TrEMBL record:
CDD domains: cupin_HutD_N. It comes from Rhizobium jaguaris. Signal peptide: none annotated. This is HutD family protein. InterPro entries: RmlC-like_jellyroll, RmlC_Cupin_sf, Uncharacterised_HutD/Ves. Coiled coil: none annotated.
């Protein structure tokens, strides 16, 4: 288990130069935008426009803050993505643009190398004591809102717990928070 504090997340420009992203975790550690196996980041989107294109990458997007946006993904109908929406998966190499619904938003972006890794993203609400199931491979638990403790590790908003497991495990969890549970597995 490795605790990734919000204050330590890496800030960097978008691939297309249109904004800034906050990198939460990347594998291999220190990999750039052209060499990662998987990447988890947050970005503030303040204007309408195109997404960066990542050849051979699968992506899942979730809205963290703001009113949301409408995505125009080549070959698909427009998709309205808001905070209450399920995480949306789509190919990061499909030309994509977005129109903001009402002002800037912050999104959660999970990307994996197609054909080498798969990923899933699930929003989880915690209120009290329970358990969270972490799949085999690499799991990341991002505390979006509130405070939570997972097996003794205290997470505040923006913190992330990175867990590498050979097999699925259940972890004790307590607190009041909204989390995003991310699973990354090698194919």
């Amino acid at each position: 288990m490795k605790l990734l504090r919000a204050s330590d997340h890496k800030r960097m420009p978008w691939k297309n130069g249109g904004g800034e992203t906050v990198e939460i975790a990347v594998s291999p550690e220190g990999a750039g935008l052209a060499e990662f196996d998987w990447r988890v980041s947050m970005a503030t989107v303040a204007t309408d426009g195109p997404f960066s294109v990542f050849p051979g990458i699968d992506r899942t997007l979730s809205i963290l803050d703001g009113e949301g946006m409408t995505l125009f993904i080549e070959g698909h109908r427009p998709v309205r993505l808001v905070q209450e929406s399920d995480p949306l998966s789509f190919p990061a190499d499909a030309p994509t643009s977005a129109t903001l619904i009402d002002g800037k938003i912050t999104d959660l972006n999970v990307m994996t190398q197609r054909g080498r890794f798969t990923h899933s993203v699930q929003r989880v609400s915690v209120d009290g004591n329970s358990e969270v199931e972490l799949k085999g491979g690499t799991s990341l638990v991002l505390c979006h809102r509130g405070d939570v403790e997972i097996d003794g590790a205290a997470l505040a908003a923006g913190d992330c717990l990175l867990v590498s497991n050979e097999v699925a495990t259940r972890r004790s969890i307590s607190g009041k928070a909204q989390l995003f549970c991310i699973a990354v597995e090698a194919i």
